[in-house]
Amino acid sequence: MITLKKNFFSALILLFLTIIICFFSAFEFLRMHENKKIYPSKGLSTQTKLSTYFKDLQNTPGDTDVYIFQGQKKGGNLLILGGTHPNEPASFITAVLLVENILVSQGKVVIIPRANSSGFTHSDSQEGNPQGFSLETTDGKRWFRYGSRLTNPIHQWPDPALYINPAGQRLSGTESRNLNRCYPGRIKGRLTEKIAYGIMELIKKEEIHLALDLHEAAPEYPVINAIVFHENSAELAALALMELQIEGFEFRLESSPPNLRGLSHREWGDYAKVRAILLETANASQGRFKGKPSASLIVNGKDKNYVKAAKLGRLFVPFDEKGIPLKLRVARHLAAINALVSGLKELAPSIVVELEKMPPPSLVKKEGIGCYLRAQK
Amino acid sequence: MSEAVIFLSMVAIFAVLAMGLRLPIGVSLVLSALVGSLLGGEGIGLRHLVEGSFGYFDTILIIVSAMIFMKVLQASGILDTITALLLKTFYKRKFFLLITVMGLIMFPGMITGSSTTAVLSTGALVAPVLMKLGLPRVKTAALIAMGGILGMIAPPVNILVMIMGGGVDMPYVGLTIPLLIIVIPLAIIISLWLGYKDIKTIGFDQMKAILPESFFKKYGFRIYIPLLAVVVLMLGKSVFVQFTPDIGIPAIFFVGSLIGLFCGRPFNFFKVTQEAIKEAMPILCILAGVGMFIQIMTLTGGRGWTVISFLSLPPVLLYLGIAVSMPLFGAVSAFGSASILGVPFVLALINKNAIITTSALSAIAGLGDLMPPTALAGIFAAQVVHENNYFKVLRFCLIPALFELFMGIGVLLLAPLIDKII
Lengths: 377, 422
Hints:
The complex is a heterodimer.
Chain A: H1 2-31, E1 46-49, E2 65-70, E3 73-81, H2 89-101, E4 103-112, E5 132-137, E6 140-145, E7 162-164, E8 170-172, H3 191-205, E9 210-217, E10 226-229, H4 234-246, E11 252-255, H5 264-271, E12 275-282, H6 295-300, H7 304-311, H8 326-347, E13 354-356, H9 361-367
Parallel strand pairs in A: 3-4, 3-9, 9-12, 10-11
Antiparallel strand pairs in A: 1-2, 2-4, 4-13, 5-6, 7-8, 10-12
Chain B: H1 3-20, H2 25-39, H3 46-53, H4 57-75, H5 78-90, H6 94-112, H7 115-132, H8 137-153, H9 159-167, H10 176-195, H11 204-210, H12 216-219, H13 225-238, H14 249-260, H15 269-299, H16 302-311, H17 318-329, H18 334-348, H19 354-366, H20 376-384, H21 390-413, H22 415-421
Helix pairs in contact in B: 1-2, 1-16, 2-15, 3-15, 4-7, 4-14, 4-15, 5-7, 6-7, 6-8, 6-10, 7-8, 7-20, 8-10, 8-19, 8-20, 8-21, 9-18, 9-19, 10-19, 10-21, 13-14, 17-18, 17-19, 18-19, 19-21, 20-21
């Protein structure tokens, strides 16, 4: 009886402790669900939702903001996707920077800053990442989320042991929550597949000509500082590369492997027949060799482990004590977008897109991102 | 304080608490993680402790559901019936018995990519047969643990390769032959090594004497339905994936357990569930503790320091680094080892065929399921044979694990030759 009584009280104490832990930690987890505002420029024509293109996404965590900038003159239609992987901040920040600054004089630009909005609402277990980072703007600090590569399991669960994606590729189960493995999506699929399907529908309905998917990768990943192109965009990618080299940005060209299915640069080209390009920069905060994860690592990109790894020849990108800061990574994305847009002008004059007031990559690289952003209101 | 000092302090505190003060391993892991967080200047790090513990949430559900299923098999008489069937079929044929048993143990692992699933499902089915035919308890557990690990790395579903492949953009294609080259010899050698000496071929009368009660006559074919349901649902979700809804491994085991309620000897389902949870609880605590430990280790820079230290080994010692670090890191989890260390090692061996390299590395990473404190394959194999000290089981796994390690390293070294042949 004594043992039973003892167990009963131990259980009660443990239960009480668990409730307290849940209560206090819940605040931190719930904070991830607060939406950080984006302040569009005057050039914005329409702000809508992805569910406009695929109704099933309405009132789901997969729905996300779509910003449309329509030029006065007719021209080409450009899609820029940021935040496919919310732990790749240069992708999201570049998209935000564009939404908050650009004017479009010819053609149309569609921007989705948080392609996988569910991924912004949680962080990866056992990665120890901060939940966000701040940037100094001219009128104060501005906070941004640092999320996960995958859809929040609260929104899509359980993972299958084996995932066969809509394009037929066999992958580990967690990849069912990776937006960039779920193209061309499924109408009746899981949430992430529905997001992918919604983006495919947007591409069709907005009659997109060139679609860009912004990413980052760990410095030890072979496809880095790269323009990954669908074979229908080989010439465009080559032209852009030349312009980037003239501007002093080193990129490499990577052709989209035909047997690697489910990725944007493959399925956008195959299914929607648009020019499909994915851009990669090097982000130490998502790598396996990273030291102590911190907001500073995300923004300044300095990490002594990566300096060591570079000396050991384990990286696919130069990495020294200066690190690879966020402003440089964003500048690279901006420069690549510029180069691709001007390449398109040269190759297909009937589908020209003219962007104005885009933050100049050289200045972003030099002065930082903050001077092109508004502070949080 | 440097990340190395914090990490080593966490390990030291864990050792003192678990071995010195003999606190439960799960509790020792939680406390050492807490101290690590404090030493790293992160305060109590409540969010990180909770977030880390959720790293094994799916694994915990698989374990709970598989344990309930195993108990249902026992309570309903299904286990005895199948033991009787296997005994009648194989009592005179030692070689075929061992090969068949190894295949049976491996099967759930092959279609789910999980050693735990294999150990707790077919592992539990074959254990009584092996023990009745003379194989000592701990050796039976070792055979089941090794079978589970081989099942995990055998085709068609090898999650470890998928994880490594995902890190280097390698599609999961063309892996069947390289994986079979590794797994088939190991399955034969290990089953014979562990079982051939001790398993006895017996006469009909002796067999009759040890034969457990079969419920086949009483309940007919329906006694096998729970097991068949689990097999069909597992096969469906990996082989006929387009036609079968994926309800997840835990749900498959729950379905099997519920069907078991109506297909054999009546039993108290509530009591069986309670027993299963009680037996699983220590390992569930360990998994939650390991999750917290690894999150704090990463948060304080210890993980990066560990990975870079292994990668700093001179090129001649690279293979030694692989052989030591990948199974060691499996103490966290074999999947974690494949992701954190496997991907950098695939890249370090980029001049070799990545399909063969990842196959071999998966065999080495799989051994992580024998590494304490998690040692999922070892712990559950011990539980299946009712052995309290899983270290006794791990002792008998040592030589078979070395076979697997040498096979993995051998395939890595001979990758160019194997590439030419296949």
